[in-house]
Amino acid sequence: MNWKGPQAEPGGYRTYPEWTLRITVFALILGVLTTVASVYSGLKLAQVVPASAVAVMLGLLFKLRRGSILEVNMGQILTSTISVSAAGVIFTIPALYIMFTQEQLGNMPQITIVNLLLASVLGAVMGATVIVPLRRRFIEIDVLPFPVGTANALLVRVLGIPVRSIITMLVGVVIAALVEWAKHTIVGTGASAHSLLPEELALGDWLGLPVYTGTALSVSLLTIAIGFIGGKEGLPFLIGGIVAWLILGPIIANGILSPDTIAQFNPDFKPGDNYAEAVAAILLPKALRPLGVGMFFGAAIVGTLIALPVLRGIVRTMRTARATGSEVPIRTVGLIMLAGMVLLFFVAAGAIPWWRAVLVVLIGTTYMVVANMVVTECGARTGISPVSGLSFLGAILTYFLSGGNVVVAVFLGAAICSGITQGGDMMYDLKTSHLIGGNARKAQIGQLLVAALGPVVAVFTVIMLAKGVGFGAASAACAAAKTCKVLADCTPELMMLKAQCLPAPQATALAGILGGLSGQSGLPIPMYAGGALLGALLTLLPIGGVGVLFGVAFYLPLSTTLVYGIGSLLSMLVKRVKGEGWIRTYGIPAAAGCILGESLVGVYYALQTASGIFGN
Predict the structure, then answer these.
(1) Rounded CA gap, 543 and 270, in Å?
(2) How confident is the model at residue 487 (pLDDT cuts 50, 70, 90)?
(3) Cβ(459)–Cβ(164) under 8 Å?
(4) For residue 541, what is the DSSP state?
(5) How far apart are CA 257 and CA 265, in angstroms?
(6) CB-hemisphere CA count at 13 Å for 506?
(7) Which of 37, 108, 531, 581 meets the CB 3.0–4.6 Å disulfide criterion with 291?
(8) What pLDDT shows up at residue 57?
């Protein structure tokens, strides 16, 4: 395989390597690694690895060896196509492991690895397919800006030898991996045993703050790196954490609750017990997290309503969509969509009546197509798209269409989520390819061929992590995090287990909603309603994604939020002092390396806990 692409020169056209065997192998390996890292970082912090940037930086090595920017671009297209579907998987499938025990799941015949893989893979492939006939309208006729795709094109075209950037990224990988290793390594014996590095720094103890404020600093280069990449756009996340823990928390502790009333919410509290610790035990699970879930929901609804005007442009796009010689044939697109719908029907029909399965597939696929195009046009115009909100609503839609079947809701929700994330990312890549003179048809074929790999890797990673440490507040690892609220209560073993806590914010939010709707768990309606109203109002602000960011900040501990904020503030400071060029050359590569290094080591230790994976 060595497909060439044309590049204009003063004397005519010259062919340059575009889709080669070496760039394909490179993208497959890097795509798998970034998918695993994205699953881990997404479950831990609701953020995924910037695979395109990593692929471009490493791919530029091929440019040095008689390659071309077309070859580099194909590498980043294939890499991002593989890894982007991780978001669709982690938003949905972990909800099953949060709502049910491993034993309960084992007694549900419809929950099989085959069904999990089919739902996720079909969604990703169908999401990539539906974008094909829309490329010409979005990119060549309307000439939408696509900030993300344009930025990637500029990155691909970077001049000079990028060895500095590559070395910086690899250094980041090594340092972050060593830090994560040190947190999991216990030295000493008995009472003197301790980990080489603590999971958190007890900032609240040093400042004399009450324990219910949760004021600590997570020792995590991954969190700092994600905040650094987010820059000033991540400040709402920091502000949300401060509002939740340092403003609302004290108000609840000193104005709403009291030592006389705390027992109503914390049955373990007895006269003479430490009141601050009793508040700390219930503040997150019974107040802040339900508010955060409500914010997700409110932000999703309002974000979708705001995006509705995009439908007018979508209708115009569909009317003018047509196949050209540079596109995958429209007949191929139709056959892939039809085959996907038939297979999804068999997945759903195993758990619900056939007529409901037909309803779920037809309406669910229609929703995925429309949501896919809404996400694409929103991202094309602003660089910000309501992926999480539309995915969240898609899973709830399938719940009602399936007659209240939670399993089908999660399975088909995974298909919808994977389709939405895949389709939006594909159009960004096609924009990049268009700007540098790449062949759209080759890019489309490449994406369709590798779109299935990412969901497969993501699903198996989720399954292994579920067996190893679990997800959400009820898991052993996150239970250890609750026990270690006070540093004196933390043994080295608990600290090491705490480091493996995977809160899975989006999946936990989905599990909470589905559990409440199905009567499996009590639904804290007042907290959800209050959070939904707040999330809706925040989404109306002229700040992209602020409602969702506040929701995540309310859901996660302050130790994570503060460190993320440090990364955002550091990015703003470096940009002011050193400039945007320094951030592109050194800052982003170092941050990407830190995310990759900590994620891969974290996944290793999480899987090591699972019986039969690496041994104990």
Answers:
(1) 45
(2) low
(3) no
(4) S
(5) 9
(6) 33
(7) 531
(8) 63
Q: Is the pLDDT of residue 584 over 50?
A: yes
Q: What is the mean pLDDT of residues 311-333?
A: 60
State residue 200 phi and psi, 5-degree precision.
Answer: -140, 155
> In 372-408, which positions are buried (b, 16+ CB within 10 angstroms) versus exposed (e)?
bbbbbbbbbbebebbbbbbbbbbbbbbbebbeebbbb
Which whole number is the average pLDDT over 496-524? 72
Lookup result for tokens 């938003």: 91
CA atoms within 13 A on the CB side of 361: 23
Angle at 458 between CA 615 and CA 439, to 5 degrees: 135
Sign of CA dihedral 462, 464, 469, 474: positive
Q: What is the pLDDT of residues 231-254, one digit of tens each?
A: 887 788 889 889 999 999 899 888
Better pLDDT: 187 or 579 = 579
Q: Over range 466-470, report the average pLDDT.
A: 79
pLDDT of the residue at 10: 44
Q: Which residue has the higher pLDDT, 433 or 291?
A: 291
Band (pLDDT 50/70/90 cuts) for residue 5 is very low
pLDDT score of 614 more than 70: no
Cα separation, 254 vs 597, whole angstroms: 42
Average pLDDT of the chain? 77
Q: Cα separation of 433 and 76, whole Å?
A: 10
The pLDDT confidence band at residue 59, using thresholds 50, 70 and 90, is: low
Which is nearest to 175 in space by CA: 469, 524, 597, 499? 597
- Rounded to an integer, what distance in angstroms lies between the CA atom of residue 595 and that of residue 33? 11
* Nearest CA-CA partner of 83 in 50, 41, 130, 128: 50
Asked if 333 and 132 touch (Cβ cutoff 8 Å), the reply is yes
Tokens of 85: 């579907």
* Residues 505, 555: Cα–Cα separation, whole Å: 7
198, two tokens: 């603590």
- d(CA 122, CA 148) in angstroms, rounded, equals 25
Angle, CA of 227, 228 and 231, to the nearest 5°:
85
Single-letter amino acid, residue 183:
K
pTM for the model: 0.71
Distance from C-alpha of 410 to C-alpha of 426, rounded to nearest angstrom: 24
How much helix, strand and coil, in percent to the nearest 5, is found in the chain?
75, 5, 20
pLDDT band at 262 (very low <50, low <70, confident <90, very high): confident
Q: Which two tokens stand for residue 27?
A: 């993208």
Q: Which helix (H) or strand (E) holds 9?
A: strand 2-9
What are the structure tokens assigned to 431, written together?
A: 């924009």
Look at strands 217-218 and 2-9 and give their pairing: unpaired
Looking at residue 133, what DSSP letter applies? Answer: G
**CB atoms inside a 10 Å sphere around CB 304:** 17
DSSP string for residues in 586-605: IIHHHHHHHHHHHHHHHHHH
